[in-house]
Write a structure and sequence with these properties.
Order of helices and strands: EHEHEHEHEHHEHEHEHEHEHEEHE
Radius of gyration: 21 Å
Structural class: alpha/beta
CATH architecture of the largest domain: 3-Layer(aba) Sandwich
Length: 328
């Protein structure tokens, strides 16, 4: 197999470097590695201008049309993760760059995190924990989820897994998805319904959509207004799917009961942000899929995608010339 220049432009904070997948990679081929964020489009271009293969770790690195135009040697962009909102996929295809991702590897970790956020906000665990540590003995602040209705918006790998977990603790599961697959749905403990009906009827509404121009701002003031005042909102997908100002107002006014959020419109979440002041919100730092098992599996798949591409068997292709060859 010919040697290709591989660059990793943005492993900060480092997740790839400590992994066994990376150790195996550098034992097999030279790699140009950066453990800092580029910080600007030009610095990203400077790092990858002569690369034929790029492994992208951080979604803060934006692969625009200008980046692809400025990197004429680039053949493969291997993304760690499922999100592609940091990549101009049409531009990648037009410049002959194949883009791959790592679907499904963090589905279990993400679904478990959604479950944890749901239970934490429903039972006020962070606040109860803090008050108990201060010598108080709080009572009567928990909501039971067994027998309640879980509404899932989006039945991708994570949404499907969360549906199983919700049903497993005795919840009725309603679901809506953009591209329903009857064969997949038949294997799930869900009842399909129209999107607005899912939102209206659910005691918990959990968002599991991919961010795209079609879904940006998908869950806005109107959708929040359909929720029960006793309902909780969970988002482990992308912050830009939600009208954050409308959500904050609904939480502050008591229009909905609470939220569990792993993602935000601006990340990292700025110090003193309004969300951090709300007692009916449980927040985590976009870390739902960060378990040792999910990390290693995803990083390994991002590297396996390189070997498959070079061997003429492209897999997990989301854009580019290889997409035509059935890489999806």
């Amino acid at each position: 197999m010919a040697t290709y220049k591989i660059v990793i432009p943005d492993d900060y904070p480092p997740v790839l470097a400590p992994s066994q997948a990376y150790k195996d990679l550098i034992a097999r081929t030279p790699v140009e590695y950066y453990d800092s964020l580029p910080g600007s489009e030009q610095r990203l271009i400077d790092r990858i201008a002569s690369a034929e293969i790029v492994i992208n770790i951080r979604s803060s690195s934006k692969f625009t049309e200008h980046v692809f135009k400025s990197c004429p040697k680039l053949r493969l962009l291997s993304l760690w993760g499922t999100g592609t909102d940091n990549v101009d996929l049409a531009a990648a295809a037009s410049y002959g760059v194949t883009v791959t991702n790592t679907p499904g590897v963090s589905a279990i970790a993400m679904a478990e995190h959604a479950l944890a956020l749901m239970l934490a906000v429903a039972r006020n665990i962070p606040r109860v924990d803090a008050n108990t540590r201060r010598g108080q003995w709080p009572r009567g602040s928990a909501a039971q989820m067994h027998g309640k209705t879980l509404g899932i918006i989006g039945l991708g790998a994570i949404g499907r897994q969360f549906a199983r977990l919700g049903a497993g603790i005795g919840m009725k599961v309603l679901a809506w998805t953009m591209h329903p697959d009857p064969a997949v749905i038949a294997q799930l403990p869900v009842q399909m319904a129209e999107r607005d009906d899912v939102i209206r009827q659910s005691d918990v509404v959990s968002l599991h959509l991919r961010l795209s121009p079609e879904t940006k701002g998908f869950f806005g003031k109107r959708e929040i207004g359909l929720m029960k005042p006793t309902a909780f909102f969970i988002n482990t997908a992308r912050g830009q799917l939600v009208d954050e100002a409308a959500l904050i107002e609904a939480l502050r006014s008591g229009r909905i009961a609470g939220a569990g959020l792993d993602v935000f419109e601006t990340e990292p979440l700025p110090q003193g942000h309004a969300i951090t002041t709300l007692e009916n919100v449980v927040i985590t730092p976009h870390s739902g899929g960060v378990t040792p098992e999910a990390l290693e599996a995803g990083l390994q798949l991002s590297i396996d995608n390189i070997w498959n591409f070079l061997a003429g068997r492209p897999a997990n292709v989301v854009a580019g010339p290889a997409a035509v060859a059935g890489g999806r």
